[in-house]
Design a protein that fits this description.
Number of helices: 7
Shape: elongated
Helix content: over 70%
Radius of gyration: 22 Å
Largest sheet: none
Strand content: under 5%
Oligomer: single chain
Amino acid sequence: AGCERITEADISSRFGIVMALAGLLGVPLGSFIAQAIRHKIPNADPLVCGSTLLLSVPVIFFGFYSARYNIQWCYGLVFFGGLLLNCNWSVVSDITLYIVIPTRRSIASATIILISHALGDAISPYLIGAIADSIRTNITPIYPIVPISENTPEYFEIEFRCKQYALFVCCFFQLAGAFAFLVMSWYVLEDKQAADRFIAETSGGETTDNMPIVNEVDE
């Protein structure tokens, strides 16, 4: 009821405010958590990224699912899901800086920014729309009793389900990202020590964080 009064501008502004707040709080929160536990768990950075991504999967899923029943719950769950997703940004930048030698850090950071935006916010709206369009033919009645026209309950129901199912695809990419971060946690300390060792050998000084250099095992 009242769905005909919902406008794209109204939803876009509210969703933008929700995600902006999630970003403003999530980015420093991820950094704070990683720094708080790093002295106890040396490979905390990728574990924080992986765990927050993993936790965001059910939150985002139920956020999209609840849109049918309660828009306030939808905004609330999407906010917490975005909060968890944004916990990665500062930590990923930190990881990039300490596993890459100084002369290559600029290109490494630029590559991450380019790929994340090119494969993320730049192309994702198109992909979600394309998936929604491909789903529409499968959920639209072939021989409806009454022809479905725009601005009718049947039309809004089909449009809603198409976009809802398309957005569920995001959860699979969140799972893939969480798995990648958890696998990274097995190797991040070794990569960090290799970068520190290179810096120490070329500069003749200590490692970047005064950690002892671990000798590599001969292959």
